[in-house]
Amino acid sequence: MSDPTRPWSNSELGLVDRAHELQIASRRPDGSIRSFVTVWMVRVGADVYVRSGAGYGGLSKWFPRARDAGGGIVRVEDQEWPAIFSHLDPIDPVHAEIDSAYLHKYGGSFGMTDAATHEHTLRITPTATGYPPLPHSTP
After folding, report:
1. Confidence class for position 56, pLDDT limits 50, 70, 90
2. d(Cα 67, Cα 14) in Å, to the nearest integer?
3. N or C of the chain: less Cβ packing under 10 Å?
4. What SS3 class is residue 71?
5. What is the predicted pLDDT for the residue at 139?
6. Spatial CB neighbours of 68, under 8 Å, sequence gap ≥ 6
7. What is the mean pLDDT of residues 68-96?
């Protein structure tokens, strides 16, 4: 199976840098799309990350749904992309850069840089050909 992802374009990464929030909608097991949820996002290099923060009562419902679905739609301002949601290993060294990006972009941690959030981090990667197969589905 070929890789369905594509890199973010420079204009898309610029939009991520300028925008305050991203909206994420994961796919249900039947393939339909859930409602959008607004979350904070950051860019590190050419990658975009979202976290479910620990600062406001713990894990949000959107996170396990998005992690388990593995894909859906992301929206930044008036742009939408089908995307893959990849759970980031909590000991991946890029977390230090993600923490710094959250502090820089939002002016404080607000629970988004606590060690617990490293377990609740997704890399968002746009797809080139639409939605990837659902987890546990056959092509």
Report:
1. low
2. 25
3. C
4. strand
5. 42
6. 26, 135
7. 94
Question: Where is pLDDT greater, at 89 or 130?
Answer: 89
The rounded mean pLDDT for the chain is 87
Q: How many CB atoms lie within 10 A of CB 51?
A: 27
| Structural contact between residues 6 and 127, judged by C-beta atoms closer than 8 angstroms | yes
Q: Is the pLDDT of residue 137 over 50?
A: no
Q: Which residues contact 27 (CB under 8 A, 6 or more apart)?
A: 33, 34, 69, 71, 72, 131, 134
The alpha carbon of residue 41 and the mean position of all alpha carbons in its chain are separated, in whole angstroms, by: 7
Q: What residue type is assigned to position 137 of the chain?
A: S
Domains in the chain, CATH or no CATH each:
13-126 (2.30.110.10)
> Strands across the sheet with 41-44, in order?
37-39, 22-26, 71-76, 79-87, 121-126, 47-51, 41-44
Q: 3-class SS at 39? A: strand
CA 118 to each of CA 65, 132, 133: distance values in angstroms, whole numbers, following the listed order: 17, 25, 26
CA 31, CA 138: separation in Å to the nearest integer?
13
Residue 138 is predicted with a pLDDT of 41
